[in-house]
Amino acid sequence: MMSTPQNENDLQQQAYHHVIFAEEEQSEGDFHELVKKLKTIRHYGIKKVIHLALGFLFLFAAYNTIQNYVTTLLPGCLGFTSLCVLYVSVCPSLLLAPGICARLGDKWTLVIGAMCYSIWIASLTRPDIPSLVMGASVVIGFGAAILWVAQGTYLTKQGDETNRGRLAGTFWGIFQLSGIVGNFGSYFVIYGSANDDDNDNNSTTKKVDGTELYMIGLIMSLVSAFVFACLSPAETFKNSKEILNNMMENDDESQPSIRDVQPDVSTPLVVDTDEATKHFAPLKSLRKEWKQLANRKHLLLLLSPLLFLTGYELAFVAGEFPLFFAKDKNQTSSVSLVFVFWAFAEVLGSYTVGNISEKIGKTYTLAFGVFIYIIALSITWQLDDDYLAVGTWKNISILAYIAGTFYGFADCTFNVIVLAKLGDLFPDNGSHGAFTIFQFLQNIGSALMFGIPVLFSNDHSESCSASNQSNMLRMVIIGSQGFVAMLSLFAFWCLP
Length: 496
Known about the structure:
With 496 residues, the protein is mainly α. It has a single domain (42-196, 203-232, 285-493), classed as MFS general substrate transporter like domains (Growth Hormone, Chain: A). 74% of the residues lie in helices and 2% in strands. The chain has helices at residues 5-73, 78-93, 97-123, 130-156, 164-175, 177-191, 203-207, 211-229, 240-249, 282-292, 297-325, 335-360, 362-385, 398-425, 431-456, 471-493; strands spanning 235-237, 270-272, 392-393, 396-397. The chain has a two-stranded antiparallel ribbon with strand order 1-2. A two-stranded antiparallel sheet has the order 3-4. The radius of gyration is 27 Å and the shape is globular.
């Protein structure tokens, strides 16, 4: 039987639809393959952030704990002077940090930075050689500069603006476990066996020499360097933002049309960004970073008070805050317990801040953090008037534990918001320069706060922490903390 023209047309039309269906089916398959690959990469990014945070946990369980005690364990003003030199030396080192990160890659920059911390901790075992401690303070300042710039850029590369706040919260939460581990450990290492010899009235004094604490800290810092050496190279998302936005917009609707999203499946979703440059040229790299930031300098200007605050308030909590509630020698052993509460608040607050900032916005989250910080400053001023107010636990006022908790939550809020906002404003080009400026302003704040006791201490006192500070000076210190916090909130509110 011969086919009529109409039947031939039907067959041709049917064949045409089969071809179109086959093409769309293949395209849909490519789309699903791309989405699956994207989800795998995002999961892999979270794993790398956790790996990064574990390295920082080991390193700063050692460093932060030693920092809290070094001002009292080292003779005279050596502790405060060492920390002041440390944070001052970070600033010029930051000029080299972008070039070093570009040349070596974030991974090996982190390893070198951790080794610099080990050198400083090892030098503390010889406080009888102040020049050795001062030299090591310069070395750790250099290490801190490259370490934190590498951390910021590595963390930024693991996501985009849709999940960067959560990644920052995850990192900060794991990182702040170092406060719990370190302070609990120091409490038992230094004071746990202080009563082994009950007949020796000076047993506690003999125990507080810091040697065991320094040796354990040295081992932990070396472990952190090994963890960084095992870190996977940093990778940057490519074309992920458009795909994620399309998926979110069509989450509760029909499957998005492949004609709306036509990704090139032959193009990798990530790009390895740890490729080293041919030549090491730090000044050229610095000029390049500044050029990339040229059109966004006004954003950094508005963000600068908050960047400064992250260092200024942390140095206040670590150096000055204990002087308000631990004025007797029998209270020294319980200072670490206050910082345990501080660390718990850091950990719990980090996960809360990361999620809340994605729901209500970073500005309102920061406002709440500033409010908590102002309350903590008010409690601290009350402790200065009566450091045993509202009852005590372990010879420390209950108010000190409350203030420490509030300081911890405020600190994690400031840092999570800074990391997330810098990632949003500078996701790729200029990221090294932006995080360099962050570290510069943060360390200027810390150096200023640690330098105040050295500048205003009594030359005849045995220790800067034991010097007689006037009420006016303490009022200025607390007042300046509140002023910078409010200025940070106002400037952040003006950001787009």
